[in-house]
């Protein structure tokens, strides 16, 4: 209930707008609209506030009412059409524009129609409409640049954005267009320059948007989607900066495309990287209430969570695709996460239930790849053939692009060369998952010799790709060719001279084992020392002991212990297990470390049951004590992201309890 004195209504409304309290104004004016539904002042301010909140459906209702109150006012009709278009009703918006075409000047009508066509994705018709307008109007030139960008004509788009900038001076929207174009052209230095210009100017003019922000529960700092924030282009700039950092290898997963809209392909076996530069960029966005966060930012945050919390990421992406508007890459990322987490049935059902949307929104080659992965579950031979067709197609494209690249280099055409290189990278990003998806079919059957052959077939194009090197190393490791495996691992590890935490712990563990098996113990100890130093630095600097970033050394020791157990030396292997969790089981226990630990313990129980090994009672008691500690530490630790939290058997506690009972039976003859 608002207590505003008569005569103070106008001051109250405009003071609230100035303070960014649009919700307050809306609530106040909705009450006034009930008693004065035909008030132009009430409806126009109400509509403006809805637009500021990006609630275009409600805004459209206000402007529709205004067209009834004053049907000769073209501005109302224009705003009504724009809101309908942004609310997801482009057809209705176009009808409105055609109805009032005689009321406005031809250029304004053409701009309106072009905007609606652009919203529909009809870039050709949009381009034709813009060409009819005066080319001296910066709004026209900027829209033309946007159309060219959508058509992937990045060189021409860059020229148009530059033309607009020359006409208007610094405009954050135009500069963002230049940054996005530079990003797509792989000119990351120029992209970073544009983004820094946007961010530095915005924070200089509006220091309240500068991080860090107060995140306390009582005085949590929250900003509304004010016109000032929207016009600053800070949100877009930080999103694109995060995308660029990911593309350059500073993120937690492979991502490309503007605003982190990316196709997350399932890599086979193992990927590495753990830097958080992209997360830092997203955290620099001024915090908003959850209902005010735009779809692109929600999407990007979900993608960043995919490595650590895939279930939450899938839930977030599922929510996004249920909205009227969402980043077009969301669908591909959601389906890809289903595949990566081996939820093939769910992925198949989702694609079957959304056939038309998947067919129109997923690029043809990605759709073909997903289809092949689904078919593999029931018809592996057919899937293999489909993967092969994709691989052959991509390899042919890459050879043609490689020849074009040589021609462009001789011509000295920087823009054309960059365009060819961009296309080459794009096709290469398609080839790798096709190769890995086909190859993993042999990996699943433990046919490692054939895996090696398949990987070698892709050597021409993938030999300099980190995932290919890691996977080749894993394959040779499984073939017990430790000398060659170490060479591939070293190609990944040695260039990483600053932060060992960026590398996968399994990769480091396998390298150490390869060194041990080839009598290079000093080099294995050097790896362990570097990892220990890196972990200590992280713990001291950030206080994150026990997080996934500080369990590298534990995993490495567990893998080495597993090696000794596999060779029958359970005494040494189990001692390595127990030492790997020192000084605190609760600090080191997570899903990954538990997986390796229980494998060794189960192997030991199997060997004991078959009387293949004799272990000292003291060692068995140590194992029991360790498992009791795992029970305590694992009470809230789910076995996987997709475990049922309401099922007590879904927790590490349950498995640790069972193993402890089995060891008690070995020692005491009873639980």
TrEMBL record:
In which broad location class does this protein mainly occur, judging by the first location in its UniProt entry? other
Which positions does the entry assign to TPR repeats?
40-73
- GO BP: any one term: intraciliary transport
GO cellular-component term (any)? axonemal microtubule
- Which keywords does the record carry? Cell projection, Cilium, Cilium biogenesis/degradation, Repeat, TPR repeat
Q: Which domain of life is it from?
A: Eukaryota
> Which SUPFAM superfamilies does the entry mention?
TPR-like
Gene Ontology molecular function terms on file: intraciliary transport particle B binding
The transmembrane residues are: none
Q: Kindly list the places in or outside the cell where this protein is found, as annotated in its UniProt entry.
A: Cell projection, Cilium
Which family is this sequence assigned to?
Belongs to the TTC30/dfy-1/fleer family.
Described function:
Required for polyglutamylation of axonemal tubulin. Plays a role in anterograde intraflagellar transport (IFT), the process by which cilia precursors are transported from the base of the cilium to the site of their incorporation at the tip.
Q: What is this protein called in UniProt?
A: Tetratricopeptide repeat protein 30
| Gene source species | Ramazzottius varieornatus (Water bear)
Lineage per the UniProt record: Eukaryota, Metazoa, Ecdysozoa, Tardigrada, Eutardigrada
């Amino acid at each position: 209930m608002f207590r505003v004195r008569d005569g103070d209504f106008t001051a109250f409304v405009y003071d609230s707008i100035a303070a960014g309290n649009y919700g307050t104004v809306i609530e106040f004016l909705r009450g006034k609209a009930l008693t004065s539904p035909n008030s132009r002042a009430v409806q126009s301010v109400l509509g403006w506030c809805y637009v500021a909140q990006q609630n275009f459906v409600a805004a459209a209702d206000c402007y529709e009412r205004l067209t009834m109150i004053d049907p000769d006012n073209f501005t109302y009709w224009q705003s009504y059409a724009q809101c309908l278009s942004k609310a997801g009703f482009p057809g209705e918006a176009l009808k409105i524009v055609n109805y009032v075409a005689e009321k406005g000047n031809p250029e304004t009508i053409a701009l309106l129609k072009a905007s609606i066509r652009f919203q529909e994705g009809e870039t050709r018709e949009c381009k034709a409409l813009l060409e009819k307008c005066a080319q001296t109007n910066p709004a026209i030139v900027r829209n033309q640049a946007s159309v060219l960008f959508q058509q992937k004509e990045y060189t021409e788009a860059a020229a148009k954005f530059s033309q607009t900038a020359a006409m208007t001076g610094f405009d954050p929207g135009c500069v963002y267009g230049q940054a996005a174009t530079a990003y797509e052209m792989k000119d990351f230095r120029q992209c970073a320059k544009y983004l820094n210009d946007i961010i530095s100017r915005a924070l200089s003019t509006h220091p309240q948007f500068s991080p860090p922000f107060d995140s306390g529960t009582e005085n949590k700092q929250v900003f509304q989607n004010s016109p000032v924030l929207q016009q600053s282009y800070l949100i877009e700039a930080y999103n694109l900066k995060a995308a660029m950092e990911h593309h350059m290898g500073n993120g937690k997963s492979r991502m490309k495309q503007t605003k982190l809209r990316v196709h997350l392909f399932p890599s086979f076996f193992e990927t590495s990287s753990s830097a958080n530069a992209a997360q830092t960029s997203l955290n620099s966005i001024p915090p908003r209430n959850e209902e005010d966060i735009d779809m692109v930012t929600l999407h990007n945050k979900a993608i960043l969570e995919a490595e650590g919390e895939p279930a939450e990421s899938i839930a977030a992406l599922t929510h996004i695709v249920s909205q009227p508007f969402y980043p077009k890459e969301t669908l591909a990322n959601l389906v890809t996460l289903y595949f990566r987490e081996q939820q093939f049935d769910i992925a198949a059902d989702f694609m079957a239930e959304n056939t038309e949307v998947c067919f129109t929104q997923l690029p043809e080659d990605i759709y073909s790849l997903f289809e092949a992965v689904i078919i593999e579950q029931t018809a592996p031979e057919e899937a293999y053939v489909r993967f092969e067709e994709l691989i052959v197609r991509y390899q042919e494209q890459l050879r043609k692009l490689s020849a074009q690249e040589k021609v462009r280099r001789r011509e000295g055409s920087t823009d054309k060369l960059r365009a060819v290189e961009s296309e080459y990278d794009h096709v290469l990003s398609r080839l790798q998952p096709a190769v890995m998806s086909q190859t993993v079919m042999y990996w699943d059957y433990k046919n490692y010799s054939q895996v090696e052959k398949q990987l070698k077939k892709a050597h021409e194009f993938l030999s300099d790709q980190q995932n290919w090197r890691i996977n080749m190393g894993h394959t040779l490791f499984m073939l017990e060719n430790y000398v060659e495996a170490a060479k591939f691992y070293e190609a990944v590890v040695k260039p990483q001279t600053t932060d060992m935490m960026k590398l996968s712990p399994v990769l480091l563990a396998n390298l150490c084992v390869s060194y041990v098996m080839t009598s290079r113990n000093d080099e294995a100890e050097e790896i362990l020392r570097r990892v220990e130093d890196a972990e200590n630095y992280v713990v001291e600097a950030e206080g994150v002991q026990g997080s996934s970033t500080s369990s590298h050394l534990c995993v490495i020791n567990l893998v080495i212990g597993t090696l000794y157990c596999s060779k029958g030396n359970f005494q040494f292997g189990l001692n390595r297990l127990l030492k790997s969790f020192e000084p605190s089981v609760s600090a080191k226990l997570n899903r990954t470390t538990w997986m390796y630990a229980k494998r060794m313990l189960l192997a030991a129980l199997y060997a004991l049951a078959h009387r293949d090994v004799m272990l000292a009672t003291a060692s068995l008691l140590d194992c029991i004590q360790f498992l009791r500690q795992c029970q305590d530490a694992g009470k809230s630790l789910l076995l996987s992201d997709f475990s049922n939290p309401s099922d007590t058997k879904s927790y590490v506690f349950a498995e640790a309890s069972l193993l402890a009972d089995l060891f008690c039976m070995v020692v005491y003859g009873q639980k």
